[in-house]
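Homework help board

Subject: predicted structure for assignment chain

Our instructor gave us this sequence and asked us to write out the predicted structure in token form, then describe one feature. I got the tokens but I'm not sure how to describe them. Can anyone check?
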Amino acid sequence: MSDVFPEELLLQILVRLSVKALLLCRSVCKSWCLLISSSHFINSHIRHNHAVGNHNLLLRCFSNNQEKEIYTLHDEIDSLKTIRELVFPFDKPQGDFFTVVGCVNGLICLWDDTHELNPVTLWNPALQKSFRVPSLHYSMSDDGPLACQKLAFGFGFDALANDYKILRIAFTFAHFIKNRRIDRRPLSFLSKIGVCSADIFSLSTKSWRHINTSVPLQQLSIPVFVNGALHFLTSKDGNQFVVVSFDLNAEAFVEMACPPDAKLGTHLDQRIVASSETISLLHQRHEHLYDIWVMKKYNVAESWIRLFSIDLDMSLGWKRILGFSGNGGLMLVGSGSWVGYPIVNAIQIVDFQPLGSYCAPYAETYMETLALLQDDNTITHLQQNIGGAVQDHKRRGQEIRRVAGKRRGKSARVSLTH
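My token output:
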């Protein structure tokens, strides 16, 4: 085929194709198969999709009626029209649904935080492939003090090393209730501050490493991946708050300032969210009133500005801010109403109203990629339609034993339009 198409021209043609078309093109000839399966081509395909904005909105929720997780793709350009529902190939965990750690380059990182081993899985829905991350066991001598852990995971891509990495943050507390090794209550409910440690998993080496540095975190928050780093919102010296970033390549923690005029408090909802190539801060100022801050220039403390405020009316139900879409729209979910101050024409509000009984809403920008295609340690999920039902068959992998334990508490129930 190189005699017909110069390799550079062939590359420029193939990177514009969908994942489904590329999988078919691998069967054309051996040279095409090797090219499409190469790390160079996979990265070129990802860079092209980023450059042309070839992405959709991924919505996840748990259906209380169907008792399953539902993942759907929506067109961000065409009024969030539903494109399709993704086939979710995993068994329901003990706590009903997985925690979505993050979604990067078409890979969705899932964490079963109700399992004793805290298993983490990387899943590529476009390829129907997944990789079960080796569990990082917590060991303690039998004659030592009883301890529990609070965990948080972050997921991102190290572009310089061409490697996907998972960061695990663990707070360890001594002298706790027997057999309660994993505690899920907020840190403010615990009487003694524990020891904070960090470990990192590399997909290229398939191994965990301990981060031998001080971890400047005093509380756990959901980390957000932006510009090659994971970002945490944490308290410092009492009621002072800072953003702590962890560079996935340098594997180092760096403090970043919060908006100086934002009066953050320990008992309010405040979160760092991704917003284009920078970070934003969702700050609950009062019971229903939120301020939306954005760092206009990444890692420049003076560039924090308050975009606008939004009042969520809970009188008709329950409403929550999910974050920003890839097109910059602020995404809301729930049955209440809202009012924005001031009226900013440049800000699009995407409001999902409930249709049924749902919980655990999650939204993230998603694009189909070939990530995991060349990894021989993955599980391939093959779907077959039998009697109208989809059955899942795993080509590789092994089951992890589950133990009896407390089920995850039910959160406020909302549903999304499809």
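Reply (TA_rk): Your tokens look well-formed. For the description, you could write something like this. The CA atoms of residues 375 and 402 lie 27 Å apart. That's the kind of observation they're looking for.
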